[in-house]
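[09:14] KT: can someone run the structure on this one? pasting the chain below
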Amino acid sequence: MSPSVPAPSSQVAQSLAWSIREARRSDDSALLELVAGLLSYEDKLASHASRPKQSARQRLNYLRAMLRSNGGGIWVAVDSGDQPVALLLGLLNQHELDPGRPANPATGMISDLFIREDLRRRGIARALIQEAEAFFTAQGCTAVTVANLVSNPAAAQAYQAAGYEPIIEWREKSLD
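[09:31] RB: done, structure tokens below
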């Protein structure tokens, strides 16, 4: 677990301190709220994409199934009351999802990252990414990949600031 990292001072977060830890089953209601926020945010950013609608419960169950089959973790940023305010899902060896790259057992993937809107741009994403990177390093990974929607430049900037370089751009066409 990372040490408690104070959020930068602002009117909203002057007394807010947060820390990073692994998600627990007791976090389920907060995780469902965060996943619902993630789904809503993704829908706004990719309204043109043809994806089946899923509930927050379905997505959380899907993410946990991915963890069971691939290994990895869900990390959360928690506020001073130990309530999750952000989440990151990291998976091991996910290159089989990318037909342009061979599977590499020494690779991790950041799959989902979401921070409550009122707490963005305070270093939480960077802290979650660093926690996932530490996990991947301990697992023997030599690289970490991440994908973000082209319509989400804030995510692209956060990942670039954390040292991630763009290497491939995916395209999609709806056939509906």
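[09:33] KT: thanks! Strands lie at 5-6, 17-22, 72-78, 84-92, 107-115, 143-146.
[09:34] RB: yep, looked fine to me
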